[in-house]
Amino acid sequence: MSVALVTGATGQVGRYVMLGLYQRSVPVRAFTRDPERAESLFADLGIGSDGVEIARGDFLDGDSLRDAANGCDQVFLASSDHPEQ
User: Fold this and answer.
1) Cα four-point dihedral sign 29, 30, 35, 41
2) CA 74, CA 83: separation in Å to the nearest integer?
3) What is the DSSP track for the chain?
4) Rounded to two decimals, what is the model's pTM?
5) How confident is residue 85, by pLDDT bands cut at 50, 70 and 90?
6) Dihedral, CA atoms, 39, 43, 19, 59, nearest 10 degrees?
7) Can you say whether the dihedral through the CA atoms of 59, 33, 3, 70 is positive or negative?
8) How far apart are CA 32 and CA 50, in angstroms?
9) Interval 16-64: pLDDT, tens
């Protein structure tokens, strides 16, 4: 089964992308700077750890993005507005 990478996974849109994929039993990897925050937010939304992987990273760290995308067949790409975007 394909794995979906969700960037901005704790954002206003990304969290609901995570929820939708989780509810459809799609294996998903959340790309986030703050895994602890992501775990808490996902638990509040009813997203369990089964089928969900959290990858710590930042867009400014190309290696972390490359590592998170490794093995993924789909990507939902979202980020906050930032001068370096």
Assistant:
1) negative
2) 26
3) ---EEEETTTSTTHHHHHHHHHHTT--EEEEES-HHHHHHHHHHHT--STTEEEEE--TT-HHHHHHHHTT-SEEE------TT-
4) 0.90
5) low
6) -10
7) positive
8) 18
9) 999 999 999 999 999 999 999 999 999 999 998 888 999 999 998 999 9
Sort 43 into a burial class: Cβ within 10 Å, 0-12 / 13-18 / 19+.
exposed
Structure tokens at 2: 């394909």
How far is Cα of residue 63 from the mean position of the Cα atoms in its chain? 16
Residues 6+ apart with CB under 8 A from 70: none
Cβ burial 7-27 (10 Å sphere, 16+ → b, else e)? bbbbbeebbebbeebbeeebb
Q: How many CA atoms lie within 13 A of 46 on its CB side?
A: 6
Determine phi and psi for 52, rounding to 5 degrees.
Answer: -125, 130
